[in-house]
Amino acid sequence: IPYIISACLSPLLGRVVDNYGKRAYIATLSPILLIIVHLLLAVSSVTPEVPLAGQGISYSAFAAVLWPSVPLVVEKRLVGLAYGVITSVQNLGLASFPLIIAQIYADSDNEYIPNVEYFFVSLACLGTIVGIYLCYYDAQNDNIFNRAKAPEDDDEYDVGLSGAHHISDGPQGRGTSKGSFSVAETQYLAQQKKGQ
Fold first, then answer.
1. Is-contact 167 193, C-beta < 8 A?
2. Could you report the per-residue pLDDT of 12-39, keeping only the tens digit for each?
3. Which of 56, 100, 107, 126 is most deeply buried (CB count within 10 A of its CB)?
């Protein structure tokens, strides 16, 4: 159920994020939804289809904000490395968590509920804490995650950066200041300009 919902909703939620932003807020709300989902599975007698649908919505929302956020905060020349690190961390989790869950299951007299679900709740709580920090970070850095458009899509952004980086020749030999700048890259360029 979660994967079918995620497969169907992810493109739609990605479009919503492109239009309305709110990446940091969604990255905080997704693990909060997972806390509810796993608590329902751990302690209630609700049919599992409802929490599993919530899990699919949470996964979709988180994926819709995680991957597109990378170029917003990582220097353009390091975006590939950043995606590689995220993928490595994800695969490390996919490799190690089944082993942890198997141990919890074995230590719980071969009962999945509630201890395994409590483990997932603890991970979702950690995700919520990270999301809250992300909202704080975002507020301190010009709301780069929560704005609807990437800064390079704003005319104001282009004007502000036009003198801060090398103007390259476009396809017709005309100078262009349009580029993909992350917060880190913009701050670096501003520091370099001050030092000149």
1. no
2. 988 888 888 899 999 999 999 999 999 9
3. 56
